[in-house]
């Protein structure tokens, strides 16, 4: 069912924004439309799968960076799920060879070839516009300055853009809800189940404490303001898929990256704790991982030049402080269904100001690192 929907919906993401009725006609599948766009996702999952673990693994696509549960009447879980299962029209989202840095390098090369000027270390202080011309005021270590522009494309959260425009945001950004743990390993850990080779176990998505009932229990605990007693998480070993993200020397020595994405870790759990809650969350999250292994993951971590283990944990509040994401929300705000309504504009990137456009995750059809909002903002500027 999701494959059929993916084939029909994905091609619409880089075209003018369809209306709800238009997208329903494009999907042309009443059962799928009701399951994914009308009713809480838990209903569809429970009617199709009976095993607690299978249900949970399916549900995880609805919870990445989204603090919700299977039967949330707001359908924010449906929106998150939909974006995860329609990638490339098959449900497969690809990653660039060489890691995300290769993508930014390619964007840089394309921009410079088109005679763009790239300025770094410029903190934007405000944006002013009359709908035709705009001014962007910025600050650097040398002082403040102003740039004039015909159009402004903003890759910031809508709430952040409202502040820069001197306006009140339409609604506060919902809090982020993830614990991100980055690790560099000297080698992959051995599993407690010796029948499974580590390279096979970590080649896909390694799910930990993510059965349907475990996900629900963790959500309920976090919603009550408590750290989940069994934090759900999943692990990706990108260096198995693409060794080029490591330097040749590290790859030759058998090193690997390991990225853990912890679910149901809302920003509220970390407020006012001065980092103590981060360390507690890290220990609680690593415990169920270690339970799957023959050796603690700490024994496999590489050491930096100071002899410290190569591991970092980032909470929603860390992302807010480091990257300016309101509440640490990786999607900038709640994801939207990929259709428009009154006032959403032709491309889903428009704001109340004709020459100020969103080109980041907060746009309609935004989220993740697809590049779709940037494409659509460019189409809007070009007048397509």
Description:
The chain is an alpha+beta fold. It folds into three domains: 2-89, no CATH class; 100-173 and 329-382, 3-Layer(bba) Sandwich (FAD/NAD(P)-binding domain), CATH 3.50.50; 179-327. Helix content is 34%, strand content 14%. It contains 15 helices and ten strands. It has helices spanning 2-9, 20-27, 30-38, 41-48, 52-59, 76-85, 100-113, 158-164, 198-201, 212-223, 238-241, 248-252, 276-290, 316-323, 372-382, and strands spanning 123-129, 134-140, 143-149, 152-154, 179-185, 205-208, 233-236, 256-262, 311-314, 356-358. The strands form three sheets. A five-stranded antiparallel β-sheet has the order 6-7-8-5-9. A three-stranded antiparallel β-sheet has the order 1-2-3. Strand 2 (134-140) and strand 3 form a beta hairpin. Helix 5 crosses helix 10. The longest helix is centred in the last third of the chain and has 15 residues, at 276-290. The chain is globular. The two termini are 32 Å apart. The model has no long low-confidence stretch (mean pLDDT 95).
């Amino acid at each position: 069912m999701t494959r059929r929907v993916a084939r029909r919906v994905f091609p619409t993401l880089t075209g003018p924004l369809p209306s709800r009725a238009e997208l329903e006609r494009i999907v042309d599948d009443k059962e799928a439309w009701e399951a994914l766009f009308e009713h809480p996702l838990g209903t569809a999952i429970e009617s199709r799968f009976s095993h607690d673990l299978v249900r949970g693994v399916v549900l995880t696509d609805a919870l990445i960076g989204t603090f919700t549960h299977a039967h949330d009447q707001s359908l924010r879980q449906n929106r998150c799920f939909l974006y995860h299962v329609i990638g490339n029209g098959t449900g497969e989202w690809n990653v660039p060879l060489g890691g995300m840095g290769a993508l930014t390098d390619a964007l840089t090369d394309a921009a410079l070839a088109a005679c763009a000027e790239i300025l770094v270390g410029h903190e934007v202080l405000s944006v002013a516009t009359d709908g035709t011309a705009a001014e962007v005021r910025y600050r650097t270590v040398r002082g403040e300055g102003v740039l004039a522009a015909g159009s402004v494309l903003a890759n910031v959260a809508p709430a952040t853009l409202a502040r820069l425009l001197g306006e009140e945001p339409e609604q506060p950004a919902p809090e982020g809800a993830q614990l991100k743990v980055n690790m560099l390993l000297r080698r992959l850990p051995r599993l407690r189940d010796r029948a499974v080779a580590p390279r096979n176990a970590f080649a896909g998505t390694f799910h930990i404490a993510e059965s349907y009932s475990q996900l629900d229990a963790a959500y309920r605990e976090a919603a009550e303001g408590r750290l989940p007693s069994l934090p759900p998480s999943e692990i990706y070993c990108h260096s198995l898929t693409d060794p080029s993200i490591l330097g040749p020397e590290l790859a030759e020595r058998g090193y690997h990256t390991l990225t853990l994405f912890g679910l149901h870790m809302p920003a509220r759990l970390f407020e006012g704790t001065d980092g103590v809650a981060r360390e507690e969350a890290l220990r609680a999250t690593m415990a169920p991982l270690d339970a799957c292994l023959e050796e603690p993951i700490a024994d496999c971590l590489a050491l930096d030049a100071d002899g410290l283990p190569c591991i970092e944990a980032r909470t929603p509040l860390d992302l807010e402080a480091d990257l300016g994401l309101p509440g640490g929300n990786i999607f900038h705000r709640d994801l939207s269904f990929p259709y428009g309504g009154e006032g959403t504009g032709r491309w889903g990137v428009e704001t109340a100001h004709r020459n100020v456009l969103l080109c980041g995750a907060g746009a309609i059809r935004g989220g993740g690192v697809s590049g779709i909002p940037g494409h659509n903002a460019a189409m809007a500027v070009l007048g397509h």
